Amino acid sequence: MREPFAPSRHPGSAPAGAGLVVIPSGRARSNHAEVARSLGTAIIGGRYGAGAKLPGDGELLAAFRVSRPVLRESVKTLVAKGLLTTKARVGTVVRERAAWNMFDPDVLAWHLEAGIDRRFLRDLAEIRLAVEPAAAALAAERRGEADLAALEAGLARMRAAPSDSDGFAEGDLALHVAVAVASGNPFMRSIGGVIEVALRASFQLSAPVEAAEREATLAAHADIVAAIRARDPAAAAAAITAVIHNGLRRHGAAG
Predict the structure, then answer these.
(1) Is 208 helix (H, G, I), strand (E, B) or coil?
(2) Which ranges of the sequence are coiled-coil (predicted)?
(3) Most exposed among 7, 157, 188, 209, judged by the fewest C-beta atoms under 10 Å?
(4) Which residues of the chain have pLDDT under 50?
(5) Ranges of each domain in the chain
(6) How many other CB atoms sit within 10 Å of the CB of residue 62?
């Protein structure tokens, strides 16, 4: 199956635009999912802007070499995710970015494949700042011994792994997920769950390179764990806020 509507670069290659970083998902896909992904990344990557009309069914069927039911299901998927709308006598039209479901795992994954920029990282940080400090404060009040063990395990994984490795990012993610779980609020855990793919990418991009930055990052995460262990909600909220701001600074999306 040809893929004419994906961004014009191979996964993992240099980004097409300044400030963009491409992170391939490596996920296996069906024909329907592949067509949806190809169109989705093209829309998110800017090939089709808001209000643009997609090519007609005949052109898409010839390009993707799939059946009409597969194409129809792919378009329905993108409509459900907020990327497209269908209009009588007009066709299939791209919706404005504000309509996209940014909590949808596929939409987040397609952002990573199309290339994430400072705006995406800033937007992600803003939702984190709205949720994670409150989660950390609740975790300090409600945490149990199992929660502390999970927090310590995430921190230990960060300490054991090189800063530029997947292990460091996975440990970072595990620690933040443990904070959400320790909050005892299922809504906070669910929010963390749906944006895990974006958080993982963010942690990979903001991983410290210099030795001094690494030590400062580990110390900042240790402050989160210590505040939750000490049952100090204000300190826990302040510590996780500082970590988010430091991450923004490292990948240049602050301000």
Answers:
(1) coil
(2) none
(3) 209
(4) 1-28
(5) 32-99, 116-251
(6) 12
| DSSP, res 52 | P
Q: What is the pLDDT of residue 21?
A: 45
pLDDT value of residue 243:
95
Specify the residue for token string 């903001």. 206
Residue corresponding to tokens 């975790």: 139
Query: What is the pLDDT, as a whole number, of residue 29?
Result: 52
Residue 150: which residues within 8 A CB-CB, separation 6 or more? 174, 178, 181, 182
Burial of 105 (0-12, 13-18, 19+ CB in 10 A): middle
Task: Give the model's pLDDT for residue 234.
Answer: 98
- The CATH code that applies to domain 32-99 is 1.10.10.10
pLDDT for the residue numbered 115: 86
Please answer whether residues 72 and 35 qualify as being in contact, where contact means their C-beta atoms are separated by less than 8 angstroms. Answer: no
pLDDT at 253: 53
Q: What is the value of pTM for the model shown?
A: 0.79
Helix (H) or strand (E) holding 90: none
Contact present, 22 and 9 (Cβ < 8 Å): yes
Rg, the chain, Cα only: 20
Cα angle: 97, vertex 103, 108; to 5 degrees: 70
Is residue 66 within 8 A of residue 77, CB to CB? The reply is no
Which pLDDT value is given to residue 2? 43
| Topology (CATH level 3) of domain 116-251 | Four Helix Bundle (Hemerythrin (Met), subunit A) (1.20.120)
